[in-house]
Structure formats: C-alpha cells, structure tokens
Amino acid sequence: MRLVAFCLTALLVVSLTADADWRSFRGSATNSLAPEEQIPLDWESDDVVAWSAELPGRGLSCPIVVGDKVVVTASSGYRQGQLHVLCFAAVGGELLWERTFWATGRTSSHPKTCVAAPTPSSDGERIFATYSSNDVACLDLEGNLLWYRGLTYDYPNASNSLGMSSSSVVVGGSLVVMVENDIDSFTTGLDTRTGEELWRIDRPQAANWTSPALWSHDGEDLVLLQSSAGVTAVDPVTGETRWSYGDGASTVPSLVASDGVAYVPSNGLTAIRPGQNTPEVAEIVWQEGGLSPGTSSPLVFDDSVFVLSRPNVLIRAEAGTGEEQWKLRLSGNFSSTPVVATGHLICFNEEGTAFVVDPAESGRIVSTREFGETILATPAVADDALYIRSDAHLWKIAAP
Amino acid sequence: MLRYFCLGASLVFCLAWFDSASADEIDELLEAVTAVEPRGEGNPAAAEAVRELSQADASTLTRILAAMDDANPLAVNWLRGAFESVAARAQESDDGLPATELEAFVLDLEHSGRARRLAYEWLVKADPSAPDRIIPNMLDDPSPEMRRDAVARLISAAEELADTGDAAEAKSTYEKALTGATDGDQVEQIAKSLDGMGTDVDLVNHFGFLTEWRLIGPFDNRDKIGFEAVYPPEQELDFDAVYEGQLGEVRWETYEADCDGKVYDVGEVGKFDLAALTEPHKGAVTYAATEFVSDTDRPVEFRIATPNAWKLWVNGEYLFGHEEYHRGMRFDQYSVRGELKSGRNTILLKVCQNEQTESWAQDWVFQFRVCDLSGKGLTSGQRTARADAP
C-alpha cells in the first residue's frame, strides 16, 4: 500500500513538474502560453533581472526549463562548428554543466541566423539538442550523453545553405525532427531512448524553417507539420498521416493549435480543423488575408488570436471568426514569438527591446526594457520567471 | 529506503567495477562506441558503452581521446560526450584533471587534431598558464583551431607593435601570422593591415583558388532537368570534341577569371563568374574542367562555394553533388573529401543555373580550391586548365 502511495505521489510530482516546465520552442504545448505564471509587469527597474549569465556563442534557440534547470544551446568557432549545450540553475543562474560537440553537418548559414537556431526539447528526463547542421545530441539532466545522431552525416544532401531552424518536439517516446530542405527533405521520428529511427517520411523539396506544433484534441496526440505545401497531421509514433491541408503555407512562422483548431500562416492566417465529413482533409473555419504573420508565430489566448505582422504591428482578432479587434504598433523588427504570462503578452524586438502588452480593450504597452543586445529568440516562462537569451547572454526576469 | 539501498549498492558496484576495470574492458567499451555508424546503427551498444565510460575515472581520459584518432565523426562526438563527463567530474575532485597527461597528449602530433584540441581546452581549465606555453608554437599545427589561436596572438602582438610605432616589427609579425592563417576573417584582417603598411597580399594565391578552367556549355537545364541528365562531358573528357548543346554546337574553351588577389574579401576574391565570362544563360548547365598537379598521393578537401547546383568528379570519379539554387554563397561553403594522385589530376565541375527571374537569383558563379585536411590551400606550380596538355 505504501508503495502504491509512493508511486502515485511520484506520478503527481512528475505531472506537476511537467506542467511548470517549458520543454520546447513555444513551451511544452507549443502554444506560447503560460498565463498562470506570475512574472513582473513593470520591467523598467533593474530589480526584475534576477540574474544573467554569459553564453559562449551565438544562438537563436530558446531556453527551455526542466524542473530547476534552464537549458540553452549555442554555437561557436569561426565556422560555428562547436555545438554547445549549457545547463543553468534556475535559482541563482549557476552554470551546472556544459557539453560541446563538433558539427557533423554543414554549418553554412545566412549571417543573421546561426547553427544554434533550433530550440532544444525535453521529455522531462532527457534533453534533445538539435542544430542547423542537423546534429542531434541526447543528454540526461546531469549532462551525460545518452546518444548522438548526425542527420546530415546520414543523409549528405539534407541541408540548407541559408541555415535550418526547425525545432524538435517530443511525443510518446518519439522525437520528431523536421529536416526539410530543397533536396533530401524529410521528417523523422527518433526513439527517445536510443536515437534509432522509428519512422521517416519524405517531405516537400523546399526550404522550410517552421517547427512542428503539437495537436492534442479529443484524446488524440498528433504533430502538425507545416510546409510550403500546407499542413500535414502525423501520428508521432508511426509517422502516418491522419489529415492534411493542401493550400500552401508560410515556411517561416509556425502554426499554433488551440481547442481543435489550427491557426496556420497561409493566405494571411487560416483557421483549419479536420473535416467534419472527410476527417483526412482539413476544412477551413475562416481565412483572413489581413492577419499575415511576419517572422513571429501566431498565438491564441483569451478567445483571440494574436499576430505580429511585418514589420511591427501586433494584431488581436477573434479566434472564432478572424475579425480584427485591435492593432498596436510596436517598434523595430521581430523574429521572436511573443509569449503570454500573467495575462500579458511579452514581445522582444530584434534590437533587444522588450514590450509588456496588456491585451485587454485596445491593447496597451505597460512597460518596456532595453536589453542592449540583438534578440531573435523566443522566451521561456516557468516557475514565475521568464528567460530570454541573446547571442551573448541569458537573462532571468522575475519579481525581486 | 529500498531505493537508497539500491542506489548505494549500484554506486559501490560501479566504483568496484572501475577500480578493477582492466585495459581490455575499457578497450571493449571504446570499441563499442567507435563501431557506431550512420543512421543509428550501433546506437544501443554505443549508448550502453558511453554510459559506463562516463563513470570511469580520470585515468581513462587520454585513452578516450586516443580512441578519437581513427573514429568517424559520429563516434568522435560519442567519445567527446563520455570524455567531458569524466573530465567534469575529475575537475571537481580533489585530484583534479591530469594536466601533465593532457599536455603530453596536446603536444603529440600523432593524435588527431580534434582530440588534441579537446585535450587542450580541458588542460586550460586545469592550468591557465598553458596557452602562453603552448600556443606560440602552434602556428603550423595540423589543428585549425590551434593554429587560429596562434594566429590571433600574433595579430594582437602586431597591433600592439603598430600602436607603439614599431612598424617594421609589426609588419614582420603580420607576415608571420599570415603563414598560419586559413580562416577567412583572420586572413582578411592581416591582409588589410599589411596593405596599409604598403605590402600587397595575394589572396588568390594564399587560398589556392583555381581561376583557370576549360568550359563547355550550355546544356539544357530547363525545368531543372540538367542536374540529373548525363551529358557527354560526364562520359568522356575529350577536349577536342564538339557536342550538341542547348543552343547549338558547343566545344571546350579556356577561360581565366580576372581575379584581383588584393580584394581582401573572402566572399569575393577568386570568384569564377560563369555568367560574366560566358553568357548569363538561364536553365543551363556548363561543365568546367581543370588540372591539378600534385607532388604526392594525398587526401585533400575540395572547398567549393556557389549559389548554384553542382556536381564534382575528380579523375573520373564522382565525389558529390548538391542540387540547391540561390540559397547564398559563402567562402568554403562545401568541403568534399577526396584523393589526389601523384602527378596530373583532372577536376570536372558541373554548374547548373535554374530559371528563377528574381534579381537575387541571377548569379552563376563559383569559388574552388584544393586544401589539405586542415584547410590550408594547396598550390601547384604546374596547375593548368589544359587537362590534355602533355
């Protein structure tokens, strides 16, 4: 009986920990939301910076948070051939461990991006670090290497000279990695325990920088793959296609799923869901040409969809209809995707300015903060704190 | 309680195991790791071996490094993971890292450049004075990263000399730095500094760009059919032959790029601009052939930069191709391993242009050089485009 109680308690602890974690690009649910997390809204004072840490190299990858650890990747060296995985203590910011690998794939990229562009992911026990060179390193939470793959080493024509950036997601023991490019283009599911290939599917031969999004609805967990061809919903364990949308989509900002609807950067923004009569073909709920995202991905919060259009206009629209509610002009250019915490949107422009936006009524900038460094990454939110990185630093923002 | 007992027992077992781990047992673990192959082959066995190796003591560090010498790039990273776990634990221990053994490894040129560099990086953690002792002697090291550090020190020294007005010594220090420099940013910096002191640097020669080629084309690449199409130059290299091309008869003609070696920009210098030298054809394939004379049989890297799709053959053997169009062109964008034989070697490059109409998609151009495995440009006094020359 005691053993059963212990196991249930352990499961509950694991579950609660998972809820508080931020385990992949745009969070554990890939939806950019952490509305319950309480972070400060007044960012003007230096008191909100709990700590900052120096990073050994560049990165557009976002931090992830697993338990009391913050993990971030970086790339360094003249050819960006050194691939770093760094783990910091969430409390205090101490560097707990660092591991480095050599890129086995090509490291060429546009100067704006870098080899550490994809965000790592985690299943709570392991860290999966991926890079533009299509290297995949799996480590435990103490930094011990569990397995390693070089997907361009395996498939030498799987690369993009502008750089690759798709982040991975973990579902059901499968690490889903998009390696989509002009030539040998595929997405694969790797066994999280060994790195062996569970499945591999051919994908459109076209450069693609989007990331997979999780779809969890009616008891079904799928991964949505977006490309220039549209959207494909696949079973993460088998790679089998469940349904698809074929009217094309952007290859930069990534779709977001919410309550059985996927909001896709396609013809502006298109809300889709599995067809009522033919479930394998998606049906369009609404389509709005004026809601075209720039580089940042859309998010859904409080029955509204939020889009950062090029260059810097934040738009709120009805999630159910696409009808615009308000527009708010920010400043600068945006690569980072906004996140929601404490009921507010947090946006970072490329010049390193943070905007805390109250989404109510007509939208209002509550506070701003200059970080003084280029910021292209999306923040992570966990345990009442926000983490953001530049090429040189990782910052923790939290109430003093 | 049971959990703690099991944990403790496991710990004791591991300690006991590693205390008694024989050289053979370590060798078996290293063999399991180095047996890892592409596409995940050997992963489960390697994962188990790395897990055990990662618990080993510091005495295994140089053995793990030595195993990198003949390992493939995947296995090298597996070994690095194990090495860093062991090294990090050793660093925190009372005994610390085995600095003497690591330094001996760094200085042993029989080992691979990457393994030596890794040993160096951890040596520096144990002994911050090591760089001053080691790096000045690394200007000609086989490891590009070691060489880069040596070049950086000389650049800094030259800058200080220039600041203090000792122009002659500054110039000689820059010239010394240039002998070891292969990274584009360092070479550019040195060349610009020397140029400012009245000394020309020829980057075409420094990097070994091949700028004289025989060309034949255009062949058809409309709808991108040309990349896979096998046109006659892929079947025979007959420089007297005349073939039917895309727009009529085509024959081999020799072109030399008008390269200014004093363009101190590695993205521009040494370019062989097909569109400018011939015609800005669209939907077209042109073949470029040249000869490289090597004084010995040797492994080399062919370093290519191009925004166009391409295929490469050396001495009739197909090495690699990449069907990507207009995703940028960067110095040393592609590295292709190959072999040169002693004497004359023929190099055949197929360069495909697509039919995109955007202004940024008009380049039909490449940079090409032959390097040793550390990135140093190789030159040949007898290098010529006349692959059929006696």
Describe this structure in words.
The complex is a heterodimer of chains A (400) and B (390). Chain A has 400 residues and is mainly beta. Chain A has a domain at 21-28 and 56-210: Beta Barrel (Lipocalin), CATH 2.40.128. Chain A has 2 helices and 33 strands. Chain A has helices spanning 2-20, 151-154, and strands spanning 33-34, 49-54, 64-66, 69-76, 82-89, 95-102, 121-122, 126-130, 135-140, 145-150, 169-171, 174-179, 186-191, 197-202, 213-217, 220-227, 230-234, 241-245, 256-258, 261-264, 269-274, 282-288, 299-301, 304-309, 313-318, 324-329, 339-341, 344-348, 353-358, 364-370, 380-382, 385-389, 393-398. In chain A, strands 1-27-28-29-30 form a 5-stranded mixed beta sheet, with no helix packed on it. In chain A, strands 2-33-32-31 form a 4-stranded antiparallel beta sheet, with no helix packed on it. In chain A, strands 3-4-5-6 form a 4-stranded antiparallel beta sheet. In chain A, a hairpin with a 5-residue loop joins strand 4 and strand 5 (82-89). The model of chain A is unreliable at 1-17 (pLDDT under 50). Chain B is of the alpha+beta class. Chain B has 3 domains: 2-137, no CATH class; 144-201, no CATH class; 207-371, Jelly Rolls (Sandwich), CATH 2.60.120. Helices cover 39% and strands 20% of the residues of chain B. Chain B has 13 helices and 12 strands. In chain B, strands 4-1-6-11-8-9 form a 6-stranded antiparallel beta sheet, with no helix packed on it. In chain B, helix 9 packs antiparallel against helix 10. Chain B is globular, with a radius of gyration of 26 Å. At the A-B interface, strand 6, strand 9 and strand 10 of A face helix 3, helix 5 and helix 11 of B.
